[in-house]
Amino acid sequence: MPSLSGSPGANWWRRLDELAEEPSFRRRVERQFPDLASSSGGLDRRRLLQLMAASMALGGLAGCGRSEPANEAIPYVDNPPGSTPGETRSFASAITRDGYANGVIVTHRMARPINLAGNPDHPASLGGIDPVTQAAILGLYDPDRSSAVLNRGTISTAAAVIAALAERLARLRQRRGEGLRLLTGRVTSPTLAAQMAALQRDLPGLRWHCWDSGFRDPVRAGAALAFGRPVDTVFNLAVADVIVAVESDLLDSAPGHLAYARAFGRRRRDAARGNPPLRLYAIESTPTLTGANADHRLVLAPARVESALRALLARVGSPLAAPAGEEAWVADVAADLVAAKGRALVHVGPEQPPVLHALGHAINEALAAPGQTLSYIEPVEANPQDQLRSLSELAEDMRAGRVDTLAVLGSNPVFTAPADFGFAEAMSRVGMSVHLGTEVDETAAHADWHLPEAHELESWRDARAFDGTVTILQPQLRPLYGGWSPHELLALLAGDVQPSGYAILRSTWQQTATQRGIADFEAFWVAAVRSGVVPDTKAVPVAVSLAGPPPPAPAPLAAGLVALFRPDPWLRDGRYANNGWLQELPRPLTKLTWDNAVLIAPATAAARGLADGAIVELATAGGRVKAPVLILPGQAPDCVTLPLGFGRRTVGRVGLGAGFDAFALRSSTALWENPVALTAESAEYALARTDGHDRMEGRDIVRVGTLAEFRADPGHTAPAEHPSLYPEYRYDGYAWGMAIDLGACIGCGACTAACQAENNIPIVGRDEVRRARELHWIRVDRYYRGPADAPEFVFQPVPCMHCEHAPCEVVCPVEATMHDADGLNVMVYNRCVGTRFCSNNCPYKVRRFNFFDYAEADPRLDLAWNPDLSVRARGVMEKCTYCIQRIRGARIEADREDRAIRDGEVVTACQAACPTEAIVFGDLNDPQSAVRRRKATPLDYALLGELDTRPRTTYQKRLLNPNPALARDQG
């Protein structure tokens, strides 16, 4: 690895070779621009066509299946009678992530869904959206989705599987369901829960198992350990002044993470206006997005995290004795927590052992957090059980021959179950197995019958959000490939041979309305479906008390290297592996695409002589895998992190061959942490990472200060003036501009995913990313500052700046890039001849070149494109347009009503998606516009302003809120 000793490095840096000023880094900077494409080389044409076909819609291949009546979906807003064809329509619905509903608004063009945005009325999204939810629109059109009933891998018919199930169920009914097992993922659907309850009443011998890769088992067990019963915790960051995050996913993947991110972003912005500030501490072994946004971050070996929590508990008022060797860091944090009693909280990540969660609950009780910064509710999950134990019992019963019929709904245990369960072999001993899923995955390949599942955007369903609020999911189009919803399969098991998801759902909610005394059910139903929120379904807080003191600390593990298993931020446990948008979206911290890697600390890599891309063999008691290494600044030296979700063996064309399977090293006794032996191999692997691409020359690119400095002298950050001899051109109409708050940006990547969905940006594949040819119009740069073992982090979204003095325009020989009447830097695609002079002259490195014609593969792909803007051809440059199609749409509407465009009427895709409201867009000529007000703050600065490009996009300086005592102790 690069030698960092004595290196002056840079103030902010993106890669270790940049910090060490390696010759390889200098060579890469000199070769800044992507390799030229030959007419035949570069990317294998067959692989290219596979990626294009698999990443875009084959919506014309509609299934012959079971669709709902078209007139039952209810728009989010009423369209006037005789509405013009081609105008957008919006429908409220939800996409579930790990079982929990995130409310969305689905935008339709020409009777097909083309875009998802957060539902501002939904408590889980509040208008924001994450990349996984955004990418559901691509999953809807995935041509590799399951499209037929399969019987042992051979295409069959719906009638055949119905007949086979009827015969099997007839025998099971005689035994009152003994031998019938259902395995689902996490279920929060009230209707599905009611169906399960009815089935269990009818068939008392039926057993319901759950397996969702064990993602939240420790959370549930920790609550039971602390309170004697499982409860869910809902946090209120709006009133929290001090937060301690322990290996936390609070801002990026926890249930309710979008709402928490929204509150976090607002607290960061409001602090600059004089409101009480928020201070975030992080304790972690492997970097998390929450930790990267902390004011203080403590890097600890996994074995020392519990000791730190016990020390915190001892200092906030518990009789628990403080462990020996407590650090000054913990003492200062504890003092800050005590000073903010009633306005503080501790959050422990889901992969931590139950005892750590119990310690977290005890600290929150000592801080008087319940009822203030958090509340407890009954579990949102319909069947809150120990998933690991449930799956273990199922596997044991299958091997013992006690399972006659197994139905698997929306779960893939053959791939995700602990390796020592031998789930595939156990499943082969079941009399009849049925799998329902949207893809033919590893479990489907081992099942007797596979049924195609209708997508969430194709079927009627319901689901609860993190706080218990229910959303009714309505279909956005007829199922492309037919298929069943889980409600319909359960109805089939109950004896209904022609189930209707719509009728099932309405029946459940009609009973609920009757119980609640609602007289007009139709009005209730229409309001609930239209708004995307069923009223009065939010869970009521419950009172709990600690069952006793936390258990004593277990014996320390033997010294040695430890493997930490973490779900991939986009693929999760592999369920989204065939989604090209997610595969190519850089991970926030590693900037990896298309692969996972063994994440290792700089010190550990140096001690073992490892460099990025070096192949190592990892061995645990349960298995061995070979994988490439990625050196990750901020990683603890005593552990390596293995992202889950890659290495799928039965998957579509996009996901096949992506990464290594870390599940093979996971055992039932070590789901999240396992001792591992690491052996270096002689081979190397070229990782497709983006943090070495599009480097801006090292000027004052990101600006970070402290809140105390700003409050003491607000003017010290005021932007410098760049006088000109020439008067500026004045735009008398609209002057569109953007402001991006670095203090609110958490680096989640939602802006990049939303831009790709809105602007017809294709995926290019692993090989092209290696050549720096990715096509994202807005990238999120991740910078480090400080020592490689414990650096600071900052994220910076970089779209086109739409410069007033645009360097790209003056070098274009055909005037393909130019200013329009509103001052936008626009592209005239049919003028562009592909010289790439504009890209060479852009100091921000935001222009993208089409090395291949991605639109030529299949005319049926047209269904996937946004019809509001063109699809670019080979040899054409493209870039961010400020979503000009949305500006044009708002202008047409305003002209029709003979008025000006209102502030907030034009919302760019990146702005709409951002969960923290870090991005604001609007008319700079409107003195009351939100963007004008944000740019008027002394925190505003122009990126590379010294070049006098006069960018329309500017940034607001990031302000941290460090603890003065801790900063003093650390020197």
The CATH architecture term of the largest domain is: 3-Layer(aba) Sandwich
Strand count, sense and barrel status of the largest sheet are: 7 strands, mixed
Q: Give unreliable regions as ranges.
A: 5-10, 36-42, 54-71
- Total number of strands: 39
Helix content: 25-40%
Overview of the structural elements:
The protein is an alpha/beta fold and 971 residues long. The protein folds into four domains: 266 residues, Alpha-Beta Plaits, CATH 3.30.70; 293 residues, 3-Layer(aba) Sandwich (Rossmann fold); 146 residues, Dimethylsulfoxide Reductase, domain 2, CATH 3.40.228.10; 128 residues, Barwin-like endoglucanases (Beta Barrel). Helix content is 27%, strand content 19%. The protein has 31 helices and 39 strands. A hairpin with a 5-residue loop joins strand 32 and strand 33. Helix 7 packs parallel to helix 18. About 3% of the residues have low confidence.
What attributes does this structure have?
971 residues, alpha/beta, Alpha-Beta Plaits, Rossmann fold, 4 domains, 31 helices, 27% helix, globular
Write the layout of secondary structure elements.
Blueprint: H1 16-19, H2 23-30, H3 45-55, E1 89-97, E2 100-109, E3 112-118, H4 131-134, H5 136-140, E4 150-151, E5 154-155, H6 158-174, E6 180-184, H7 190-202, E7 207-210, H8 217-227, E8 232-235, E9 242-246, H9 257-271, E10 279-284, H10 289-292, E11 296-299, H11 302-315, H12 328-339, E12 344-348, H13 354-366, E13 374-377, H14 387-399, E14 405-409, H15 413-416, H16 423-427, E15 432-437, H17 442-446, E16 449-452, E17 461-464, E18 470-473, H18 486-493, H19 501-515, H20 521-531, E19 562-567, H21 580-584, E20 592-593, E21 598-600, H22 602-608, E22 614-619, E23 624-631, E24 639-644, E25 673-675, E26 677-684, E27 688-689, E28 704-706, H23 707-712, E29 736-741, H24 750-758, H25 766-770, E30 779-785, E31 792-798, H26 807-811, E32 817-819, E33 825-827, H27 837-841, E34 848-849, E35 877-878, H28 884-896, H29 909-913, E36 919-923, H30 930-935, E37 940-941, E38 953-956, E39 958-960, H31 964-969
Parallel strand pairs: 6-7, 6-14, 9-10, 9-12, 10-11, 14-15, 15-16, 19-24, 21-23, 28-39, 29-38
Antiparallel strand pairs: 1-2, 2-3, 4-5, 4-16, 8-13, 17-18, 19-25, 20-27, 21-24, 22-23, 22-26, 29-36, 30-31, 32-33, 34-35, 37-38
Helix pairs in contact: 7-18, 8-13, 11-12, 11-13
